[in-house]
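Subject: D-amino acid dehydrogenase small subunit structure
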Amino acid sequence: MAIDTADQNTTYDAVIVGNGGLGLSLGLVLARRGMRVAVVGESTRPFAASVAAGAMNGCFGEVTPTLLRSEYGRRKLAMDVRAAARWDDWERLLVEESDESRIRSANGTVVILNTIGVPGIDTAGYASIRQALHDYKEPYEDLDPEDVEWLAPEPKSRPLKAMFIPGEHAVDTPALLRGLTTAFGRQGGTLIDSHVSGLRLEGNRVTGVDLRTGGSLSSDTVVLAAGAASHDLLAGVDAEIRDRIPSLVSGSGVSLLVRTENGLIPDSVIRTPNRAFACGLHVVPRGDGVVYLGATNEILPRPCATAAIGEINLLLSGIRQLRADLVDGHIEKINVGNRPVPLDGYPLLGEAGVDGLWMMTGTYRDGLHQSPMLAEEMAARILGDAYDTDLDVFTPVRPPLQSLSREETLEVAVLHTMAVGVEHDWHLPEDLPPLIEEQFRRSFEQKLAEMESDFIPPPELLFFVEPEIESALRRYYDAYRNG
């Protein structure tokens, strides 16, 4: 149920800040366990990642060479695999508890390797996906690209290889959010259409939250699941604790809902490997002649609510890689979302250095896919039940998790930077790209030197770094400079 918060001063067993896929999922699991739970967030979700997500059940399709190279990346893949195994039961129960007839869409995923990407990213990414499928003994099938139904790119963008992963579907995001909202209410949960302005603290213990609309909510358990805005809510926490938690920047992304002229849509997800600091080009069937086309990724210091023309142009230019006659379709909606990206690139899961305060955010591109698993894992921690200690490495108060060496970070940053130009279909004299590449390498080396730290940011933060992000990195690194 929803309540008017203008004069509310109510006590709950748990207050969850954030009404996206993660926050609602945790709220639902706790409500099922008999807790009195409030989920707080503006009903319009103005900056959320969930509302703009293509929501692929992307597990193996998201694998990259750098992911497999890193211990923490391999742990993240293991989380994705565990989450994938939860979705059948999660969807079944959610359908029973709500008015939705289905939550997931798409019959598997087709991964294509086409002529647009660069070998060091796309070809290597395609090989890494296959390696991960082999390692986990996940079924897949090689396809002749000519036999992939619906796919009809222009000749210069034709696919060279294709494989079908039958176990990777997609989530119908609007249906998921409606279903979670309905099920949460029917389990006795309370939805509060407001914005949390700050935490209520007594010493080193949280006692609730203040609401921008007036009043407050009391609880000795508060979970920050507000995406990219979560770290801002730590403003009242002692700086010695707050600065040891990686703050969050926004992976701002733009996607389009397109109605095809002939009403034809694919049966499956069709996607490229991840490329150029983003999640690869992908099309997701949404039904009734509509497809989701996504998605861009730009690291910004704060969430953004509007779509840059350049981001839209990049998506529109990508149409040629999928189906040439999509240019005759019609844009029904432009989505803008903000993925929560911690300064070291890994999620923030667990207690946040203050008694009763928890964080469940920083999942970057994995939040919706991991939501059933993370909701159950976080609920177990909150309730004092047995839980998977493998996730403890992602505790919020932590030194930076380092995936790559300085040299590896530089090479990945330069490689993806140059790939951005290829994806934008740049046309340059042959002698210019090597010169541009060398300039970027020198620029990135200078940025690392100026930070004066042994810690290395993820490659995408090195590419998008600007004064506010650089200041946040310095503050976080300085908190651990002396061990």
